[in-house]
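Final report, closing paragraph on structural work. Over the funding period we assembled a curated collection of sequence-structure pairs, and we close with a single example.
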Amino acid sequence: MNVKIDTKEKFTVITPEEVRLTAILTGELVEMLLHYQQKDIPHLVLNMQRITEIDEASGELLANCQQQFYEHNCSFVICALQPAVEALLDKAELLEVMNVTPTESEAWDIVQMEEIERELMGDE
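Its predicted structure, as stored:
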């Protein structure tokens, strides 16, 4: 799967280059994303701006991947969902369990807020 990777100071932005996300492609993407939990900067923003079509299995894989990040105390925010993708995830009741923002800038804000929250919780 072709992706654009943009590494920031506190997180990495991954933008898939595909327009259609199938379960097979999502499996490859999830495998790549999970490796980021072992990196010095384990927090991710998944920018879905180019994805115009997704199936329910792909949505479930992404939701499970996101949950694994949070279980490992790492941030994972999905942003820039296209209307058809958002509608499918909403219909499948996956949006309720996913951390999704309309823009990449808002995703950055959430990652930074979660980082501050982890630092404060670590002080207790």
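The radius of gyration is 14 Å. The mean pLDDT is 95. We thank the funder for supporting this effort.
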